Amino acid sequence: MYKIIGADQKEYGPVTAEQMRQWIVEGRINGQTPVQATGDTAWKPLAMFAEFSAILPSGPPASPMPPSFAGAVVSGVDGHAAALSKVSAPAICLMIAGGLTVAFWLLSILGGIMGFDEQYARASRANQSPEVQRAMEKIRGPLTTAIRVLGLAIGGFVIFGGIKMKKLESYGVCIAASIVALLPCSFCCLFALPIGIWSLVVLNSAEVKNYFG
Protein backbone atom coordinates (compact mmCIF):
# COMPACT_ATOMS: atom_id res chain seq x y z
CA MET A 1 0.00 0.00 0.00
CA TYR A 2 1.13 3.52 -0.77
CA LYS A 3 0.38 7.16 0.02
CA ILE A 4 1.18 10.08 -2.28
CA ILE A 5 1.32 13.87 -2.23
CA GLY A 6 -0.83 15.01 -5.14
CA ALA A 7 -0.30 18.02 -7.39
CA ASP A 8 -2.66 19.95 -5.08
CA GLN A 9 -0.20 19.28 -2.21
CA LYS A 10 -2.72 17.09 -0.38
CA GLU A 11 -2.00 13.62 0.92
CA TYR A 12 -3.91 10.68 -0.56
CA GLY A 13 -4.04 7.00 0.24
CA PRO A 14 -3.35 4.36 1.21
CA VAL A 15 -3.94 2.80 -2.20
CA THR A 16 -2.80 -0.41 -3.86
CA ALA A 17 0.07 -0.83 -6.32
CA GLU A 18 -2.50 -1.53 -9.04
CA GLN A 19 -4.18 1.81 -8.41
CA MET A 20 -0.77 3.50 -8.56
CA ARG A 21 -0.05 1.89 -11.94
CA GLN A 22 -3.40 3.09 -13.24
CA TRP A 23 -2.63 6.68 -12.22
CA ILE A 24 0.77 6.45 -13.94
CA VAL A 25 -0.86 5.26 -17.17
CA GLU A 26 -3.45 8.06 -16.92
CA GLY A 27 -0.70 10.65 -16.38
CA ARG A 28 -2.07 11.66 -13.00
CA ILE A 29 1.23 10.96 -11.22
CA ASN A 30 4.78 10.85 -12.51
CA GLY A 31 8.31 9.99 -11.48
CA GLN A 32 8.61 13.12 -9.32
CA THR A 33 5.45 12.47 -7.29
CA PRO A 34 6.31 12.04 -3.57
CA VAL A 35 5.36 8.52 -2.43
CA GLN A 36 5.47 6.81 0.94
CA ALA A 37 5.19 3.02 1.15
CA THR A 38 3.41 1.43 4.10
CA GLY A 39 5.89 0.90 6.91
CA ASP A 40 8.25 3.64 5.70
CA THR A 41 8.59 7.07 7.28
CA ALA A 42 10.37 8.79 4.39
CA TRP A 43 8.81 10.24 1.24
CA LYS A 44 10.61 9.36 -2.00
CA PRO A 45 10.03 10.20 -5.67
CA LEU A 46 7.94 7.58 -7.46
CA ALA A 47 10.84 6.92 -9.85
CA MET A 48 12.82 5.41 -6.96
CA PHE A 49 10.31 2.55 -6.59
CA ALA A 50 11.48 -0.35 -8.77
CA GLU A 51 7.98 -1.81 -8.99
CA PHE A 52 6.79 1.24 -10.96
CA SER A 53 9.91 2.33 -12.88
CA ALA A 54 9.19 0.02 -15.83
CA ILE A 55 5.93 1.78 -16.72
CA LEU A 56 7.02 5.35 -16.05
CA PRO A 57 7.35 7.52 -19.21
CA SER A 58 10.96 7.95 -20.32
CA GLY A 59 10.49 11.56 -21.48
CA PRO A 60 10.14 14.72 -19.36
CA PRO A 61 7.29 14.30 -16.84
CA ALA A 62 4.03 15.99 -17.69
CA SER A 63 2.33 18.14 -15.08
CA PRO A 64 0.26 15.67 -13.08
CA MET A 65 -3.37 16.20 -12.18
CA PRO A 66 -4.70 15.41 -8.72
CA PRO A 67 -5.64 11.73 -8.65
CA SER A 68 -9.22 10.69 -9.38
CA PHE A 69 -9.94 8.05 -6.80
CA ALA A 70 -12.96 6.20 -8.14
CA GLY A 71 -13.73 4.63 -4.78
CA ALA A 72 -10.23 4.66 -3.35
CA VAL A 73 -9.77 5.93 0.19
CA VAL A 74 -8.87 9.62 0.28
CA SER A 75 -6.71 10.35 3.26
CA GLY A 76 -7.20 14.12 3.02
CA VAL A 77 -9.96 13.81 5.58
CA ASP A 78 -7.91 11.36 7.65
CA GLY A 79 -4.93 13.69 7.35
CA HIS A 80 -6.98 16.59 8.70
CA ALA A 81 -8.05 14.48 11.68
CA ALA A 82 -4.43 13.44 12.25
CA ALA A 83 -3.33 17.09 12.13
CA LEU A 84 -6.02 18.03 14.67
CA SER A 85 -4.80 15.25 16.92
CA LYS A 86 -1.18 16.34 16.59
CA VAL A 87 -1.83 20.00 17.52
CA SER A 88 -4.21 19.21 20.37
CA ALA A 89 -1.67 18.70 23.17
CA PRO A 90 0.63 21.67 22.40
CA ALA A 91 -2.42 23.90 21.82
CA ILE A 92 -3.85 23.00 25.23
CA CYS A 93 -0.45 23.60 26.84
CA LEU A 94 -0.27 27.00 25.14
CA MET A 95 -3.64 27.90 26.61
CA ILE A 96 -2.49 26.76 30.05
CA ALA A 97 0.73 28.79 29.76
CA GLY A 98 -1.26 31.85 28.72
CA GLY A 99 -3.72 31.30 31.55
CA LEU A 100 -0.91 31.07 34.11
CA THR A 101 0.60 34.30 32.77
CA VAL A 102 -2.75 36.08 33.06
CA ALA A 103 -3.20 34.73 36.59
CA PHE A 104 0.29 35.94 37.56
CA TRP A 105 -0.38 39.49 36.46
CA LEU A 106 -3.85 39.55 38.00
CA LEU A 107 -2.25 38.56 41.31
CA SER A 108 0.32 41.30 40.77
CA ILE A 109 -2.48 43.85 40.32
CA LEU A 110 -4.20 42.53 43.45
CA GLY A 111 -0.93 42.85 45.35
CA GLY A 112 -0.64 46.46 44.24
CA ILE A 113 -4.16 47.19 45.46
CA MET A 114 -3.31 45.62 48.82
CA GLY A 115 -0.27 47.88 49.20
CA PHE A 116 2.61 45.56 48.37
CA ASP A 117 3.88 48.00 45.73
CA GLU A 118 4.35 50.69 48.38
CA GLN A 119 6.09 48.27 50.74
CA TYR A 120 8.50 47.30 47.96
CA ALA A 121 9.08 50.98 47.13
CA ARG A 122 9.93 51.81 50.75
CA ALA A 123 12.37 48.90 50.91
CA SER A 124 14.11 49.93 47.69
CA ARG A 125 14.40 53.60 48.69
CA ALA A 126 16.86 52.69 51.42
CA ASN A 127 19.59 52.14 48.81
CA GLN A 128 18.73 55.08 46.55
CA SER A 129 19.90 58.66 46.49
CA PRO A 130 17.27 61.42 46.89
CA GLU A 131 17.51 62.28 43.18
CA VAL A 132 16.88 58.67 42.16
CA GLN A 133 14.03 58.43 44.65
CA ARG A 134 12.28 61.46 43.15
CA ALA A 135 12.74 60.15 39.60
CA MET A 136 11.43 56.71 40.55
CA GLU A 137 8.39 58.20 42.29
CA LYS A 138 7.39 59.88 39.03
CA ILE A 139 7.68 56.80 36.81
CA ARG A 140 7.01 53.90 39.19
CA GLY A 141 3.22 54.02 38.98
CA PRO A 142 2.84 54.41 35.17
CA LEU A 143 5.67 51.94 34.50
CA THR A 144 4.21 49.29 36.80
CA THR A 145 0.78 49.72 35.22
CA ALA A 146 2.21 49.46 31.69
CA ILE A 147 4.13 46.29 32.56
CA ARG A 148 1.06 44.66 34.06
CA VAL A 149 -1.15 45.55 31.11
CA LEU A 150 1.49 44.21 28.72
CA GLY A 151 1.74 40.98 30.73
CA LEU A 152 -2.03 40.50 30.63
CA ALA A 153 -2.07 41.17 26.87
CA ILE A 154 0.71 38.64 26.28
CA GLY A 155 -1.08 35.99 28.31
CA GLY A 156 -4.37 36.65 26.54
CA PHE A 157 -2.73 36.47 23.12
CA VAL A 158 -1.08 33.13 23.95
CA ILE A 159 -4.47 31.77 25.04
CA PHE A 160 -6.04 33.02 21.80
CA GLY A 161 -3.26 31.43 19.75
CA GLY A 162 -3.76 28.12 21.54
CA ILE A 163 -7.48 28.19 20.77
CA LYS A 164 -6.81 28.89 17.08
CA MET A 165 -4.14 26.20 16.93
CA LYS A 166 -6.51 23.59 18.36
CA LYS A 167 -8.94 24.40 15.52
CA LEU A 168 -6.24 24.55 12.79
CA GLU A 169 -7.10 28.20 12.14
CA SER A 170 -5.00 31.36 11.60
CA TYR A 171 -1.57 29.83 11.05
CA GLY A 172 0.24 33.17 11.41
CA VAL A 173 -1.48 33.88 14.73
CA CYS A 174 -0.50 30.43 16.03
CA ILE A 175 3.14 30.96 15.04
CA ALA A 176 3.15 34.42 16.66
CA ALA A 177 1.56 33.11 19.87
CA SER A 178 4.15 30.33 20.07
CA ILE A 179 6.96 32.87 19.69
CA VAL A 180 5.39 35.20 22.28
CA ALA A 181 5.18 32.26 24.69
CA LEU A 182 8.99 32.18 24.61
CA LEU A 183 9.22 35.69 26.11
CA PRO A 184 10.29 35.89 29.77
CA CYS A 185 7.23 37.90 30.82
CA SER A 186 6.61 36.15 34.17
CA PHE A 187 7.75 33.23 36.30
CA CYS A 188 5.64 31.07 33.94
CA CYS A 189 8.32 31.37 31.25
CA LEU A 190 10.01 28.28 32.69
CA PHE A 191 6.89 26.36 31.72
CA ALA A 192 6.02 28.32 28.58
CA LEU A 193 9.49 28.18 26.97
CA PRO A 194 9.46 24.44 26.11
CA ILE A 195 5.77 24.68 25.19
CA GLY A 196 6.48 27.48 22.71
CA ILE A 197 9.32 25.49 21.14
CA TRP A 198 7.13 22.37 20.96
CA SER A 199 4.33 24.33 19.29
CA LEU A 200 6.68 25.82 16.69
CA VAL A 201 8.05 22.39 15.82
CA VAL A 202 4.55 20.95 15.41
CA LEU A 203 3.28 23.94 13.42
CA ASN A 204 6.18 23.72 10.98
CA SER A 205 5.66 20.04 10.22
CA ALA A 206 4.18 19.46 6.74
CA GLU A 207 1.47 17.10 8.01
CA VAL A 208 0.09 19.95 10.16
CA LYS A 209 0.89 23.06 8.12
CA ASN A 210 -0.90 21.80 5.00
CA TYR A 211 -4.21 21.43 6.84
CA PHE A 212 -4.54 24.92 8.28
CA GLY A 213 -7.66 26.71 7.03
Structure summary:
With 213 residues, the protein is an alpha+beta fold. The protein has 8 helices and 4 strands; from the N terminus they run ββαββααααααα.
Q: Count of DSSP E strands?
A: 4
Task: Compute the number of helices.
Answer: 8
Shape label: rod-shaped
Evaluate the radius of gyration. 27 Å
Order of helices and strands: EEHEEHHHHHHH
Low-confidence stretches: 68-77
Side-by-side strand order of the widest sheet = 2-1-3-4
State the helicity in percent bands.
Answer: 55-70%
Mean pLDDT: 80
Head-to-tail CA distance between termini: 29 Å
What's the number of structural domains? 2
Biggest sheet character: 4 strands, antiparallel
Estimated share of beta-strand residues: 5-15%
Q: Classify the secondary structure makeup into a structural class.
A: alpha+beta
Task: Explain the overall architecture.
With 213 residues, this protein is an alpha+beta fold. The chain folds into 2 domains: 72 residues, Dna Ligase, domain 1; 130 residues. The protein is built from 8 helices and 4 strands. Strands 2-1-3-4 form a 4-stranded antiparallel beta sheet. Strand 3 and strand 4 form a beta hairpin. Helix 3 runs antiparallel to helix 5, helix 5 packs antiparallel against helix 6 and helix 6 packs antiparallel against helix 7. The chain is rod-shaped. About 5% of the residues have low confidence.
